[in-house]
Structure formats: structure tokens, C-alpha cells
Amino acid sequence: MDITRVCVVGGGTMGNGIAHVFAQKGFHVTLVEANQELAAKAVATIAKNMDRQAAKGALTAADKDAALARLKTGTKIADAAGFELAVEAVPERLEIKTAVFKELETHGAPGAILATNTSSLPITDIAASLKDPSRVIGMHFMNPVPVMKLVEIIRGKKTSDGTTETVKALTVKLGKIPAVANDFPGFVSNRVLMPMINEAILCLQEGVSSKEDIDTIMKLGMAHPMGPIALADYIGLDVCLAIMEVLDKGFGGVKYKPADLLRKMVAEGKLGVKSGAGFYEYPKK
Ligand code: CAA
To answer: Which residues line ligand 1 (CB under 6 A)?
Structure first.
């Protein structure tokens, strides 16, 4: 199936980034948010991020205008009816995602592919109540979406080879690189990344080093673009905790136990960049 019309559900950090890259690469996108105010906020973020690209010469003003003209918004999935691909990026709760997929199933073009950007929920569970789970797949983009090259493609137990191949080819059309994982807790990305972040938080909790030095050691010593404590703030400490809990539940043992300090920070509402404070402070500009 030729994919030209894309529905993105959710306009938060990941959703607006996903809508951004599809619109930029020539797809007609409908971004669905809970209300017009949130939808307008998502579009304003996309325009601002495109300005960043334009300022660096990575996008012309005409390309930006054309991309924004391909981007529409809606407040219900029916507003995007007839899409050939949907990418869901709503909060990481199975019941919310399941309800979204039930609706996506009724409003897509025949044979439409239904993708989720979940960072750790099982694709197989999200697809379980649908008539055709072979068309459900994980398309796990990385933050910031316009910059990061990877899309982790996750195959649920019933995802077909055809769906996988179509989504891999589509990822290449977006200028990104696909890498495929099977449906295990945390897939590959977060099974490897989150225990490293959790271990860095344990180093801080146990007084092994300061947050600044932990970040410097990992950033300069391992050539990572950010240290793990700063990265945790960037991802969101609530997101990190939720992923650690999925790993802990899925595998058990001490290896995946969330650090007490991580739990404490989340309980105090210190969620990282998005809340203005996490391990570091992020004063409003
Ligand atoms: N939209 C468009 N462009 C953006 C952008 C955005 N949202 N954010 C950054 N950029 C661009 C900047 O304009 C800049 O462009 P040039 O290279 O052309 O100058 C470039 O990206 C670098 O940005 P900055 O100069 O502002 O800052 P930086 O060099 O410190 O890089 C960073 C910032 C890209 C975030 C970098 O620190 C980085 O790569 N960090 C690691 C990010 C990472 O690991 N992401 C994965 C998190 S895990 C995840 O997402 C999945 C999950 O399930 C939890």
C-alpha cells in the first residue's frame, strides 16, 4: 500500500516530533490532540523547531511553509479518517493506548498500518483486542525526533512480515535508520539504556560521585552526547521510572530494581526538564 496520509495521535514531545518529520518529508499529516489549544501548541512547537533547522540551513523557508501546509490538526481520530498509517504517541498507559487503537481500527483506510511509539509497553498487548493484529507494530522514535537517526521497529507476536517491511521502508523515506527488535520488556533501546541511567542514579544515591562528575565521566569517557543524569532529566524521570518498573516486572531480580532516589524525585514532582527541575534546575527562559 502506498502511504501518503498519516495520522499522529498525541502532540506532546514525541508526537509533535513525529508529526514534524512526516510533514517535512512530504506526507499529509493529521495531528490529533485532546483539544484545539493543545493542537495549536503542538503546531507552534513544530514551527519553532523547523525555524531551528532553517537557521542552520537544514531547511529552507519555502520547505518549512510547504511542510506546515501539509500538517492539519483534529480533536478526534475521525478527523483523520482514511489514513494509511497511524502513529500513536499518547501517555504510557495500556488502557489509554488500547482505547486509541480500537478507534484507529475503525477510521483507517483498508489495510492501514497502526503503529505505537510506546517506549516499553508490549506491542502484543496493545494489539490483543484488535481484529487484525498483523498490522500493529512498534515505531519507537527517539527524542529529539527531528535529530535522532534511529527508529526502533518492534514486532509484536502477530505482526506480519509485510507490515514490518513496509514500516522499515517508510523509516528510510523519513531519512532515518530502522533497527528491528522483538517484543521483550524494554525492547533493546530501553533494556540497555535504562539500567545504565538507573545505575548512574545509584552512584549518586550511594555517594560514589557528584551528579556533575558522573555526567562528565560518562560523557567524556564514553563519548556520549550527554551524561546519564542529564539524559534522565531530558527524557523525564517519571518516564525513566515507568520503564524501570516494566523491566523489573518483566525480568525481576536486583538488576532492574528502580533506585530509591529515582522514586523519591518522581514522588516530589521533580520530573526533569519538563517540570523545571530534576537532578538539575531548568529555569524558564
Ligand atoms: N528539533 C529540531 N532540531 C533540534 C531539536 C529539535 N527538537 N533539538 C535539537 N536540534 C538540533 C539543533 O538545532 C542542533 O542543530 P545543528 O547540529 O545543525 O547545529 C542540533 O540538534 C544539536 O542541538 P544543540 O546545539 O541545541 O545542542 P547539543 O549539541 O547539546 O545537542 C541533543 C542536543 C541533540 C539533545 C544531544 O545532546 C543529544 O543527542 N543527546 C542525547 C539524546 C538521546 O540520547 N536521546 C534518546 C533518549 S531515549 C528516547 O528518546 C527513547 C525512550 O524511550 C526513553
So the answer is: 49, 52-53, 56, 58, 119, 142-144, 146-148, 189-190, 225-226, 231, 235, 239
- Decide: residue 225, CB within 10 A, 0-12 exposed, 13-18 middle, 19+ buried: exposed
Provide the pLDDT for residue 243.
Answer: 96
Average pLDDT (57-82) is 97
**Residue burial 148-183, b: 16+ Cβ < 10 Å; e: rest:** eeebbbbbbebbbeebbebbbebbeebebebebbeb
CA of 266 to the centre of ligand 1 (A): 24
Is 119 in the active site?
Answer: yes
Same domain, 141 and 207: no
Q: For this structure, is 140 an active site residue? A: yes
Q: State pLDDT tens for residues 2-30.
A: 999 999 999 999 999 999 999 999 999 99
Q: Which domain holds residue 125?
A: 5-182
Atom of ligand 1 nearest to the CA of 55: 13
Tell me, what CATH number does 41's domain have? Answer: 3.40.50.720
Closest residue to atom 28 of ligand 1, CA basis: 225
- pLDDT digits over 211-266, tens only? 999 999 999 999 999 999 999 999 999 999 999 999 999 999 899 999 999 999 99
Same domain, 63 and 147: yes
- 158 CA from centroid of ligand 1 (Å): 34
Q: Are residues 41 and 61 in the same domain?
A: yes
